[in-house]
TrEMBL record, chain A:
UniProt keyword annotations, A-Z: Membrane, Transmembrane, Transmembrane helix
Residue intervals passing through the bilayer: 20-41, 47-67, 72-91, 97-122, 134-156
Listed name of the protein: Uncharacterized protein
Keyword Membrane: yes
Domain of life: Bacteria
Taxonomic source organism: Phytoactinopolyspora mesophila
Automatic annotation (TrEMBL), chain B:
Entry keyword annotation includes Transmembrane: yes
Stored InterPro entries: DUF3100
Superkingdom of the organism of origin: Bacteria
Keywords: Membrane, Transmembrane, Transmembrane helix
Protein name: DUF3100 domain-containing protein
Transmembrane segments: 12-32, 38-59, 71-87, 166-190, 237-255
Keyword hit for S-adenosyl-L-methionine: no
């Protein structure tokens, strides 16, 4: 979620340079945090929660490897998403096994560590940007974000009503 | 071994996060009634707020616990920390694949909802707030990383357009989760849109925006939980694939044109650098 890559290499979206080992390590750290949160958020036993987090960890690790080594570019989160789909398609022999592991994992609790890191990562530069941009840009930004959401919701709603 | 040691040296960061997330999770989902609707406050919002309050760049006394090196180390972990969440989303799409394919046309077309930023925010920037070329960078997209790259390529980040896109990027990073949670819970409680449409719209921004948006939606409409996750996840995946092209080939030229129409005397500057 850093703009640095974009700023350094503006002419094209640069391929992520993934350091596999440190990434897998940090992924393990956030998975441990996620495991602790599952114990608070769900009725899962510690072992069930561990199985669920391990399953998700495997999908993430697989996605990282694909992003790193497949010869064309897709962001690692897109690979992870695609692997998650491939692991749970109903006509595959393995979908029930995967779902048994991860189905009861609470997705909302999974998102909490990310935002804690994001809050701690706010840099002086970002605060300067907000101060310098002033209230006008702040106001416009609110309308941009709200407008995107509203725009998509309106189009989706109309198309759904037409196509039934 | 070195990988392990460098993680241990960042123990302050990870312990701070551990304390924050457990506190946030224990506070749980809270509801603020607002007219006929309601706004939902979610654990991820408290986690962000608590993180900001421990950030030495915001509260200088926090530097006793969190120093600049922890702040710098936190940044690359953000995208890693969202990965298990994205994986979980993928596993909700698979079982619902038939539903997704049925909703295909709506899913594809709502990607054009990005243009909602142009319809809503551009007039406000140009006519109401009388902003200059900043409005081009600010309103052509939802200002995530690929959009910054487009602006950097075309105008440079030091240009007015660059200031516009960076401003919205930072505001989105700071307040995006809150805005998406508010929009989703308000619109869900107003009962005007179909829940499926609101779910698809959750996927148009970053991963954490989707997290708060789907969180708010599925708390408001618990019986639709699985469908909401599947549709939002599919929409988010499409956004990775198409979002950049829509903003590059449709939205940016459109905003350029509108701006030149709105400010004919300013049209000389900035064209294609």
């Amino acid at each position: 979620m850093s703009a640095d890559n974009a700023a350094v290499n503006p002419t094209r979206i640069s391929r992520e340079k993934i350091d596999v080992l440190p990434t897998l390590r940090d992924l393990a750290l956030v998975s441990i945090l996620g495991w602790a949160l599952q114990l608070i958020a769900t009725e899962l036993t510690p072992w069930e929660a561990l199985g669920g987090m391990a399953g998700l960890y495997a999908l993430c690790a697989g996605g990282l490897f694909l992003a790193r080594f497949v010869p064309f570019y897709l962001p690692s989160v897109a690979w992870i998403s695609l692997l998650g789909i491939a692991a749970t398609l109903p006509f595959t022999p393995w979908d029930q096994a995967v779902l048994n592991l991860v189905a009861e994992i609470d997705f909302l609790a999974l998102s909490v560590p990310c935002l804690a890191y994001a809050g701690l990562a706010v840099s002086r530069r970002e605060i300067d940007v907000v101060k310098k941009s002033g209230w006008k840009l702040l106001l416009v930004a609110v309308f941009v974000l709200a407008g995107t959401y509203l725009g998509s919701a309106v189009i989706a709603d109309v198309v759904l009503r037409i196509t039934g | 071994m070195r990988t392990v040691r460098s993680a241990v040296s960042m123990w302050r960061l990870h312990v701070a996060v551990l304390v924050i997330v457990i506190a946030a999770q224990f506070i749980g989902v809270q509801q603020i009634p607002l007219g006929t609707g309601a706004i939902l406050l979610l654990p991820l919002l408290y986690a962000f707020l608590l993180g900001v309050l421990l950030n030495p760049n915001v509260i200088s006394r926090a530097s006793a616990i969190i120093r600049q090196r922890e702040v710098q180390a936190a940044s690359p972990i953000i995208v890693i920390a969202i990965m298990p969440f994205i994986a979980k989303f993928g596993t909700t799409i698979g079982p619902a694949i038939e539903e997704i394919i049925e909703a295909g046309p709506a899913l594809l077309l709502q990607e054009l909802g990005n243009l909602g930023t142009v319809a809503l925010a551009f007039p406000i920037a140009v006519w109401l707030l009388k902003m200059g070329r900043e409005s081009i960078g600010a309103t052509f997209s939802v200002a995530r990383e690929p959009n910054i790259a487009i602006v950097a390529d075309r105008y440079g980040l030091k240009s007015p357009e660059g200031t516009g896109v960076m401003g919205v990027y930072v505001v989105g990073t700071l307040f995006g989760t809150l805005i998406f949670a508010v929009m989703a819970s308000l619109l869900a409680s107003l009962d005007v849109f179909q829940p499926e449409a609101l779910a698809m719209a959750c996927g148009v921004g970053s991963g954490s925006m989707m997290a708060s948006c789907t969180g708010a939606l599925s708390e408001s409409l618990p019986e639709m939980g699985d469908t909401i996750l599947a549709l939002a996840g599919a929409s988010n995946l499409l956004t990775y694939a198409t979002g950049m092209y829509i903003s590059l080939f449709v939205a940016l030229p459109l905003v350029e044109r509108l701006y030149n129409k709105a400010r004919p005397d300013a049209a000389v500057a900035g064209k294609d650098g």
